[in-house]
Amino acid sequence: MKVLALLPCILILLISPLRAADPLPSWQDTAPKHAIVAFVEKVTRPGSPDFVPVSERIATFDNDGTLWSEQPLYFQNFFIFSRIKALAPQHPEWTNQEPFSLVLKGDLNAAANCNLQGQLALIMATQAGLTVEEYQQAVTDWLATARHPQNGKLYTEMTFQPMLELLNYLRANGFKTYIVSGGGMDFIRPWAEKAYGIPPEQVIGTSIKTQFEMRDSKPVIMGLPAIDLVTDNVGKPVGIQTYIGRRPIASFGNSDGDLQMMQWTVAGSGPRFCLYVHHTDAVREWAYDRQSPIGHFEKGLDEALAKGWTVASMKDDWKIIYVADKK
Amino acid sequence: MKVLALLPCILILLISPLRAADPLPSWQDTAPKHAIVAFVEKVTRPGSPDFVPVSERIATFDNDGTLWSEQPLYFQNFFIFSRIKALAPQHPEWTNQEPFSLVLKGDLNAAANCNLQGQLALIMATQAGLTVEEYQQAVTDWLATARHPQNGKLYTEMTFQPMLELLNYLRANGFKTYIVSGGGMDFIRPWAEKAYGIPPEQVIGTSIKTQFEMRDSKPVIMGLPAIDLVTDNVGKPVGIQTYIGRRPIASFGNSDGDLQMMQWTVAGSGPRFCLYVHHTDAVREWAYDRQSPIGHFEKGLDEALAKGWTVASMKDDWKIIYVADKK
Known about the structure:
Chain A has 13 helices and seven strands. By secondary structure, the first copy, chain A, is α/β, with parallel strands linked by helices.
C-alpha cells in the first residue's frame, strides 16, 4: 500500500472531533456538557470562523478541587505533614516553632491554614536539601500507600472521572492540556502522566529554587530553601506565560485562585471557554464555596455568573465523581 | 474505508525512521551524520534493547552558535544596542553609566563583553516596563529589517540548514525538540516556530521576572527589572528540570556554556547522544574555539574528545551552512 495514499485519511483522523461514541459519558446531558461540546466543535471545524489551529489549542487546568478533591485539606498537606513528622527528630527546634509545632501537636487544620509564609516554610523544610529525583520518589512512595482519612481511598483514586474524560476529549481534538496548580510542581509531576495523561513538561506549579551541582562526580539538581514561583492567583497567568508562552483558549478551575487564569484566558481574541467546577455534592464529595477557607469560591463565582462562564455543579451535572467509582 | 483498518499503517508511519529520502542532505557523508542516524535508528527500533518510548525522546538544543551564528556578537546584543540607542533620550544618566555609555559611544565589543551584571542591566533596561507582548513585538519588528553588519543577511537567514534538517529528522522520529539558550527566552520565542519549527512552549531561555496586572481593565503580563533565571552553564540543567521535568536523551551545543547540559544528559541511564558544533569554517562562517570570548569552547571540547561525544566540523561535515544558501 502506498503510504501517500493514506495521508488524507490520517489527516481526517487527526482533525475530526470524536463523534463515534459519547466522549463524556460521566457528564449529565445538561448545559455544561453541551457548552463543552459546542466549543470544541466550533474551534475544530475547518472553515468555521472560530477555527483555531492545533498549535494554539492550549487548555489549562487547576488541580486541587478541579481534577481531584481537596477536602478536608489539600492532599499535598497530608504528604507534607507525614514528612514533617518523619523529619522532626532531626529538628528539635520545631517543637516551639509554628507552623511545625502545630503539625507535631496534630493540629492539622491550623497548620494547613497558616499564612502563606508558614505554608512555604513547610514546603521548603520538606523539599530543600533533596534532589528533585529524591523528592519525587518520596511523593511516589507516599502516594502508593497513603489513604484519605475519611473515605480510605488512595488519593489517586479521588481524581474526577468526568474531568478525566474531558482531558481525553480535548486531547483527541488536538488540544495540549496543562495543569497550572497552586500546589507543588514536583509534587504533581511524578503521577500526573499516569493519572491524567499529562506529561511532566505540561505540569506547572509552585516551585522552589534549585541548583546544579556535582555529588560524588554525578550531576544532581538540588532543592534550595527558597521559593521560586507561586503559581496561584496572580501567579497563574505568570506561570502560563513563563512556561507556555501562549495564552490558553480554555481554562478550568474551581476557586478564586483560578480567577486570574480565567481573566487572562478570556482577554485573548477569538473563541474562549472557561468552566468552573462547583462543589455542590455533600453526599458524594463535599459542598462548599463562599465560606470555605480551602477552595474559597466567591469572586470567581460572581464573575462566572456575571460573564456567563460555564459553572458545572458536581451534584447536578456529573453522573459519577471519582475514577475509582467507574463501573 | 474502515478507519480501524488504517491503524497499523498509521502506527508504522509514526514509529518508523524516515528512510525514503536522505533526511540530512546538507550533512557530508562523514562520521557525525553516521552517528546521528545510528542513534536515532537504535532508539526508535521496536524491540531494540536501546528503544526509548516517544514520551522520553527529549532533545535539547543551544541556540547561539548551534542553531544560528553568534559572531561578531550575539545577535541579541545588536537588538539590545538598537533599543538602548532608541531609549537613550529618556535616560540622560546613561551617558556616564557603563555599560550603557559604551553602547552610546559605539564601543559595541566592550559593551557586549562586559560582565554578567552589566549584560543583565542591559537586558532589564530594554525589557522591563514592557508587557511580554510588547517586547516580543519589538523583537519581531527588529528582525524583519535588521541585517548582519558583515554579510548583510537578515539574522533569520543565518540559521544553520544542517541543524534545521536535524531538528526535522528528530521530530519525524518522535522527538520533542527544545531550545535551551543562555539568550533571552522572550527574544527567541517570537520567531523560533517559523525558523525552527519549535513552538514557544519548547523555548527555554534567560528570563526576567514578570507580574500580572490590570492596565485599563485589561490583564497584562508586565516585565519587571529583576532577573528570574539565567539558563547558561549550570543554569541549563536547572532550566531543563524546571521547564521539562525530564532529562533529555540528546543534547546539541557549541560552547562551554553547553557543557553542564551535556553532563546532565549523559548522566541518565540508557542510550544518550551529545553533539558539539565546532566552528571551523573561516570562509563560509567563522573559525573559533579556545580563544574566543564568544562561544568559548575549551572545557567542552576537551570533555567531548575525552568522552567520545560527536564533534561536527562545520568546514568538513556540512555541505552548506545557512538556510539562506539552500538552492
